[in-house]
Amino acid sequence: MSTRSADVAHRDVAHRDVALAGVALAGEVLRGRAATLARSGRHEDAVLLLTELAAGREHTAAEHDLLARIQAQRGRLDEAERHWRAALALEPDAGGAIADGAAAGLHHLRRLRADRVGARRRDGLAAGLLVLLALGGGWWLGHDGPDRPDQVPAAAPLSAPAAGTVPAPEGAARRPVDDLAARLAGPEATVTGAGGQLVVAFHDPIFTVHDTPSPQGRATLSGLGARLAAVPGIAVEIVGHSDGLPVRAGGPYPDNAALSLARAAAAAETLRGAGVPATALTISAGGGAVAPYPDGAAGDPRNRTVTLRVTPPA
After folding, report:
1. Angle subtended at Cα 297 by Cα 292 and Cα 303, rounded to the nearest 5 degrees
2. Would you state the pLDDT for residue 25?
């Protein structure tokens, strides 16, 4: 091969490598954008973006992993399982980020399904809280590194609350999260502990229609907000919900996910007005698929609400 031919060949290889690197970088950027959309409750847009990214080819393992997390957050557990199994089939080697993340996701699904069966036998609200703990925008899409199944904490047992809280098991050492639960407890909500977090589920609807809290709902949020504001360093994720009925055609919200996110934002404003720092608040959408009262009738007004996932100060 002449020197000129060799130079041309090297240039072609370099151009190909640059092009491949550009494609890979674009894929990473679009996956990041899809994850951001999903975290903000725009699940359909996130799935559409990933579908367009894979046009003309099969999804990569990383795309399957992200799709699994999105479907899990939407409550579509069978779809989530399908994508995680596809990710494992493409990257089966243990120790890799995708393989370990998919294995951890499947472990979460198995645990969630088992806990939901047990919780439904005991109490409808408890079953809903278990789903919220797993799907409320936390592990599925907020998880940046792979958990190994043996590192996933077991869900705390749930039982009917005595005075607005679910007590720690008898004989268990009192933890900071237990003290926080006692400080947040009130007649308007159930405070349930699981691992190092609390979930606050309100007994009555916070919203009647759209994303404006009712007078009673605003008073409920303000009262809890005052108690939250008295705990420096607290972190609160506000998860919006809907009753699951279709949104009105031509209305301000394209779907229940958008309505739920708007409700979470409205609740955040009320909590800020009660003194909770804006830096302590994040919002996400649970929609109607992940509801605190999953066993109620269709359109159950109690699901026109938000739930709070509270993390104690470090």
Report:
1. 30
2. 47
